[in-house]
Fold this sequence. Notes:
The chain has helices at about 10, 25-40, 70, 90-100, 170-175; strands at about 15-25, 45, 105-110, 115-120, 125, 130-140. It is an alpha/beta fold. The protein has one domain (about 10-145): FAD/NAD(P)-binding domain. Helix 2 (about 25-40) links the parallel strand 1 and strand 2. It binds flavin-adenine dinucleotide. Flavin-adenine dinucleotide binds near residues 23, 26 and 46.
Amino acid sequence: MTAFDTADPILRRGLRTVDVAVVGAGQSGLAAGQALQHAGLEVLILEAAADVGGSWPSYYDSLTPFSPARFSALPGMRLPGRSNRYPTRDEITDYLRDYAVRFDLPVQIDSRVLDAAWDGQAFHLDLAGGYRLTARGLVAASGASADRMSPTLPVWPSSPEPSCTPPTTAARTSSPGKE
Ligand SMILES: Cc1cc2nc3c(=O)[nH]c(=O)nc-3n(C[C@H](O)[C@H](O)[C@H](O)COP(=O)(O)OP(=O)(O)OC[C@H]3O[C@@H](n4cnc5c(N)ncnc54)[C@H](O)[C@@H]3O)c2cc1C
């Protein structure tokens, strides 16, 4: 059982259409999902990993955010403790899980989005496990650490080359001085 264990049955229960599909259950996907759900839309957050929290669980253990708790929280829920302290990596990870539970966000874990195609009216998503989902809207919150994928749209300017190399897995999982 994962720390976030409420999500698995969503697609198996037969859900095939939602208002908005959100790709990724990191801090961006959770915040977007909460706002969309609050606006009364039916949302499904699709997460490739076995838990919510995005990149935070795999960062080195001594990492703290660059901003204090009062500037690091997601909309609608404070980070616990004093507002001027710097939470640890594990506190941020726990906070993101708690956020998903507190707002009862519909997250489908172990559900990588393999493809998303727009037919002029809706997005059609192919998911790991052979599931398919149709959504009127799509939020790409898959982070900077995954393979980058930019949509090809007639009015989209060509994507600039990234100005820096994303952190390697080793850099993200090791504490400074421990490599
Ligand atoms: C050293 C360091 C320090 C940092 N400090 C801060 C800080 O102080 N404050 C701050 O705000 N940020 C900080 N960041 C950056 C922060 O970690 C990222 O901004 C944040 O994780 C981005 O959140 P996200 O939800 O966009 O992406 P992520 O956290 O990367 O989450 C993306 C999620 O999408 C999922 N995903 C990817 N592809 C798919 C797919 N095809 N289908 C389904 N799911 C998919 C991934 O599994 C992942 O769970 C720091 C980063 C580093 C490396």
